[in-house]
TrEMBL record:
GO terms for cellular component: cytoplasm. Pfam families: Leu_zip (PF15294). Belongs to the LZTFL1 family. This is Leucine zipper transcription factor-like protein 1. It comes from Muntiacus reevesi (Reeves' muntjac). Keywords: Coiled coil, Cytoplasm. It comes from the Eukaryota. Regulates ciliary localization of the BBSome complex. Together with the BBSome complex, controls SMO ciliary trafficking and contributes to the sonic hedgehog (SHH) pathway regulation. May play a role in neurite outgrowth. May have tumor suppressor function. It is found in: Cytoplasm. Residues 93-127, 151-223 form a coiled coil. Self-associates. Interacts with BBS9; the interaction mediates the association of LZTL1 with the BBsome complex and regulates BBSome ciliary trafficking. Its main location: cytoplasm. The lineage of its organism: Eukaryota, Metazoa, Chordata, Craniata, Vertebrata.
Length: 231
């Protein structure tokens, strides 16, 4: 932490730099007390912000990868296994529809998180630019390197988030394709079930009974026609 880079005396009214992170503070010429104090406060604030944001982003990425991708990918793969549910239920098609909706919501949540990270990065860049303008007479090479490293780390995090977003979009496209395939399998299964039912003894008996009933009705109509008066 940056707190260890500075030391207060017993009265607490002077700040004695003793670290080598910013060598400009160790020079022997006199520096205005208020300017030096403000400079130190800005540097400490930037380091605090850097540590806080870096820790927060790393925790978010780790939590996202562990809690979201691991479990969701496993559930997604399990749901992709072809299986036919009973005809009176949605079956695999309903599960795929729910998975598509969940992936779309996850995609929107990921985009929102990316916007938040970009906003944090812009805020940090503005603070860095302000500190450079305020102490432009000072040697800020070390601080500039730190900011550059921080920006690179943020960019890497954003790239990782972008890759995760692409992966979700690919999974969504795959889910839609599998949905069409499962719907086709379901239609074929219904036709096959109907075909097998027509081959059962119960179906044949029912068809034979209906045929006999139709014949009886035709015979009765012929008999009744004999008794109907002619016009």
């Amino acid at each position: 932490m940056m707190y260890s880079a500075f030391k207060l005396n017993k009265q607490g009214d002077n700040i004695e730099p003793w670290c080598t992170l910013f060598p400009i503070l160790n020079q022997s010429y006199s520096v205005d007390y208020k300017l030096q104090t403000c400079y130190i406060n800005i540097v400490v604030y930037l380091w605090q912000l850097y540590c806080t944001l870096s820790k927060e982003l790393l925790e978010q990425v780790a939590e996202f990868e562990k809690a979201e991708f691991t479990s969701s990918n496993k559930k997604f793969i399990d749901s992709m296994k072809p299986k036919l549910a009973p005809l009176h239920e949605g079956g695999a098609a309903e599960l795929l529809n729910k998975e598509i909706i969940r992936l779309q919501e996850e995609n929107e949540r990921l985009k929102s998180r990316l916007k938040t990270i970009e906003s944090q990065l812009n805020t940090l860049e503005q603070l860095c630019n302000f500190s450079k303008d305020f102490i432009k007479a000072q040697d800020l090479s070390d601080l500039g390197n730190t900011v550059a490293a921080l920006k690179s780390e943020f960019q890497k995090t954003l790239n990782d988030q972008t890759e995760n977003q692409k992966s979700l979009e690919e999974n969504l496209a795959t889910a839609k394709h599998d949905l069409l395939r499962v719907q086709e399998q379901l239609s074929m299964a219904e036709k096959e079930l109907e075909k097998k039912f027509q081959q059962t003894a119960a179906y044949r008996n029912m068809k034979e009974i209906l045929t006999k009933k139709n014949d009886q009705i035709k015979d009765l109509r012929k008999r009744l026609a004999k008794y109907e008066p002619e016009d």
